[in-house]
Amino acid sequence: MKKFLALLYLISSLTMLxxxxxxxGGTGGGGNPQVATHFSVTTxxxxxxxxxxxxxxxxxxxxxxxxxxHSGTVHFTSTDGQAMLPPNxxxxxxxxNFSATLKTLGSxxxxxxxxxxxxxxxxxxxxxxxxxxxTHFSVTxPAGANPGTAFNFQVTARDAANxxxxxxxxxxxxxxxxxxxxxxANxxxxxxxxTFSATLKTTGSxxxxxxxxxxxxxxxxxxxxxxxxxxxxxxxxxxxxxxxPGLFCNFFVGHGTCTFGFSQPTGSExxxxxxxxxxxxxxxxxxxxxxxxxxxxxxxxxxVLITGGDDGNVSLATAELFNPASHSFAPVGDMADARxxxxxxxxxxxxxxxxxxxxxDGNPLATAELFNPAxVSFAPTAVTMTTPxxxxxxxxxxNGKVLIAGGDNGTTSLAxAELFxxxxxxxxxxxxMEAPRAxxxxxxxxxxxxxxxGGQDAEGKVLATAELFxxxxxxxxxxxxxxxxxxxxxxxxxxxxxVLITGGDNGSATLATAELFxxxxxxxxxxxxxxxxxxxxxxxxxxxxxxLVAGGADFTPPLDGSARAGLLPEPTATAELFNPASxxxxxxxxxxxxxxxxxxxxxxxxxxxxxGGxxxxxSAPARSLASAELFQ
Length: 632
Description:
Helices cover about 5% and strands about 40% of the residues. The protein is mainly beta. A four-stranded antiparallel β-sheet has the order 5-4-8-9, with no helix packed on it. A four-stranded antiparallel β-sheet has the order 15-14-18-19, with no helix packed on it. A four-stranded antiparallel β-sheet has the order 24-51-50-49, with no helix packed on it. The longest helix has 18 residues, at about 1-20.
């Protein structure tokens, strides 16, 4: 009986001991099983930016005992968004030693969290991240400058993580790719930075370099500074500046004021296209090369990139930059391919995508290339479109990708579309439009969808239909019908989200009509007619909400029924403004040149830059223009 009672007591004791234990973990003082409740993260109090250091993570229970059997996976985060942290890791016997690198100055911390049980976490004490010794300079200079005119630039000493090296006390020496440059004397920086003045004297692409006088590896070079010939506005004295050979002055008889215009080819009447200085159009220096069917793209640095086009005989590979400060152009080298009727799209990263178009032999292109404003250079991409195309559209979507739609492959209009992804540098099919289209328009709406209107189909028929591309579904869907068929028209997104459609050709005559697309109702509604019929014109939204409609060609048959010249456009110098409030068009000043197939872009100061185009005479072949002007 005594043996039985002793055995019963032993079993009872063991049962009670098991009831007091945990479900996981090791054994601490007293022999009780443990459960990890948190981590301790032990780091040094100080760290140097860009330099790695070691830290320790330990799994602890509620009494801060080490839980040697904790087998969860640990994830690391930091208040430093630039930190280099370990990958997800497991602990050994409840502990782990790791390495991290912090890159942001100031007070930072590191956090460890169990990937399954988020409540098991821990954060280090504050780590004071100090500056590292300077490794290089950053040199910040304007994108454009005038020869002989001083400008300011900034030099900053930076460490390996690009933080300002505030303790830099060295002496900086300056050099430039411009051998004639006037540069600062050797100088010191204050708290790692300094602002200086320089004067460049040689036109073209130039740079400024800053180098430490003792440690040559501490150096830095600016992005390209385009030095433009300075072009002054024409004043009452009517001086013609040597840098602007395309300009001329003429005394306007009876008014006693100065007028401006652009020189005409030999044999034409000088002054035949002049207008009074009161005109809202003012001259700019001419481009280096005459061009039509080119592109004009405002860059993030405030300069305008002009690419390709046709000089009246052949497609061009040349490109140039316009500087709004000097009203002048400077060449920037050639594209990889000659292109006309191509597209140029400013990407979210500031680089310009140039794709498709017609080459120097008149064949559509499938190639693409990128222009980088930082080094002012073109570089071909490794991708090509599935089919060559010209007269297509390219639209930057809200997600940063570019929708390339329709166009002409040299034989027929296309319905196929593709997407360019800047993140991967790749092209992928994007389905097909409801109808093949060339010489159509594509407009990004405020809701993120793309409105595609009109164009010419595969049978040569001009279309009145429209469709919408949804980047979320990747599909095109019908979007109603315009009041009239149109190709070579314009589509402009207005401030209120509606789209203004103007002019174009319906297959038999040039149009003066206009209409509005309302994304809310999904319908087209006629609005006031333009003062002139136009196609191959431009329509530019201005800062005040009005739209400048300029130039274009009128192919309307003569009223007497006589045949018109088959391929000769009849461009106009007229311009007009659309007022969304009244829904009407009113005439404004004429341009100095009649133009069609030109380009127009809104500048940061609110002016509209108009460049190139074609301006033939009725009895002569079309002539491309090098002239440029600004609408104020």
